[in-house]
Design brief:
The protein is of the alpha/beta class. It is 35% helix and 14% strand. The chain binds adenosine monophosphate.
């Protein structure tokens, strides 16, 4: 699947090439054609899935293709509502990036900053307003903005807006919009209250839920190495230098991936990197070199690795755990294919305990936790037993005895411990290797 085949305007495709996007993510593949057809959308997608582009691209396409020339003062043609100013700023940035060649103007409206610059921008005229509900209502009351010409309404992270108590504000805002409009609702979950909101304000929406496969290939062995964050890089080197297999290493950020790549190169490993800041040519080259064995390590970020066509990869190492548990499955999905054995290693530090719990909950299986000799963490990892499947007799699973790892210094540094007790009652444990 390519962006071209989704039906987007060439001016948008050009910007996507510059951003280094090679192919649409699943939410984009599902949402963009439906949105371009003029349908309402009810989309279940979390941050990290590419949801922003999934609405920003068809939004820009619509405004560009049906351009009315100079934007009219105070009367935007599209409204994006977000729960926080950070998200509003981020969405605005994305819109600017994707819209670089389409000449569509956008501005943000959120609290905590002066009203006047926002008033001025609205008065000059913009096609898109990205707003948080509270500040937008202020502007509506002062007649700084007129929403009667809005053709597209986007609710981003709708579940969070409801959690934050924005429902009354959203209802007021919706009351000021024309009935003839398109509504695209994005939410991490499509819980009952979201669906009820959708039923009130949307017309036969296309419902999209990004697949979150919750099973992984049985031929993959999962292993967790607890380690102090500061020693992760040394541990990674140790593992890579002792295992010559082709390895895909996942980092969370582009910057982190770059730093890791140069550290591994310095140690004499043949490494390539693939992430959002790399040009398409660089990415294609990296992938080719990895597949041909010219480089033995490929460092990637989650989104960049989506849709990478690498078969029968023997080893994946998660240098950082993914922020979204489903991404663990996407990452690991590349190993152990076609009946081959695969190994999935995660380097986990104390600050990632919560992420690890989410992953174990999703996998519904225990993962061996083994410290590597010489890299034992200075504190135990704390895991919540409730994350594990209950046995069929309905009784809670037996607790493992606490087994401090040799060299574990948790008791030696009581001051480093988290003060807040665990929800499960401080059930600190160290699970046995399976
Ligand atoms: P989001 O889920 O919208 O927060 O997007 C997460 C990250 O993925 C952002 O950094 C986007 O720039 C990036 N991204 C979105 N779509 C793609 C794509 N098709 N290919 C590569 N990166 C993407």
């Amino acid at each position: 699947m390519s962006f071209e085949s989704l039906g987007l305007a060439p001016a948008l495709l050009r910007a996507l090439v510059e951003q280094g996007y090679t192919e649409p993510t699943p939410i984009q593949t599902a949402a963009i054609p439906a949105a371009l057809e003029g349908r309402d959308l009810l989309a279940g997608a979390q941050t990290g899935t590419g949801k922003t582009a999934a609405f920003a691209l068809p939004l820009l396409d619509h405004l560009y293709v049906s351009s009315r020339g100079q934007a009219q003062p105070k009367t935007p043609r599209a409204l994006v509502l977000t729960p926080t100013r950070e998200l509003a700023a981020q969405v605005h940035e994305s819109i600017r990036g994707y819209g670089k060649y389409v000449g569509v103007r956008a501005t943000t409206v959120f609290g905590g900053v002066g009203m006047q610059p926002q008033v001025d921008a609205l008065r000059r005229g913009v096609e898109i307003v990205v707003a948080t509900p509270g500040r937008l209502m202020d502007h509506m009351e002062r007649r700084n903005v007129n929403l009667s010409n809005v053709e597209i309404l986007i609710l981003d992270e709708a579940d969070r807006m409801l959690d934050m108590g924005f429902l009354p504000a959203i209802k007021r805002i919706l009351g000021n919009l024309p009935r003839q409009r398109k509504t695209w609702l994005f939410s991490a979950t499509l819980a009952a209250e979201i669906k009820s909101l959708a039923a009130q304000f949307m017309r036969e929406p296309v419902e999209i839920q990004v697949a979150s496969p919750n099973s992984v290939v049985a031929t993959v062995t999962h292993r967790i190495h607890p380690v102090d964050a500061a020693r992760k890089r040394d541990l990674l080197l140790h593992l890579l230098l002792n295992d010559a297999r082709q390895t895909l290493v996942f980092g969370r950020t582009k910057h982190g991936a770059d730093k890791l790549t140069s550290a591994l190169e310095k140690a004499g490993l043949r490494v390539a990197a693939i992430h959002g800041n790399k040009s398409q040519a660089q990415r294609t080259r990296a992938l080719k070199d990895f597949k041909s064995g010219k480089v033995s390590v490929l460092v990637a970020t989650d989104i960049a690795a989506r849709g990478l066509d690498i078969d029968q990869l023997p080893m994946v190492i998660n240098f950082d755990l993914p922020m979204v548990a489903e991404d663990y499955i996407h990452r690991i999905g590349r190993t152990g294919r076609a009946g081959t054995e695969g190994l999935a290693i995660s380097l986990v530090s104390r600050d990632e305990e919560g992420l690890l719990r989410d992953i174990r909950r999703l996998l519904k299986q225990d993962i061996a936790i083994e410290a590597v000799a010489g890299f034992e963490p200075s504190q135990l990892l704390r895991l919540d037993d409730s994350a594990r499947a209950r046995p069929s007799n309905g009784r809670p699973p037996q607790r493992h005895a606490r087994r401090p790892h040799p060299g574990n210094g948790a008791d030696a540094h009581p001051g480093n411990r988290t003060k807040k007790p665990q929800r499960s009652g401080g059930n600190q444990r160290f699970s046995r290797p399976a």
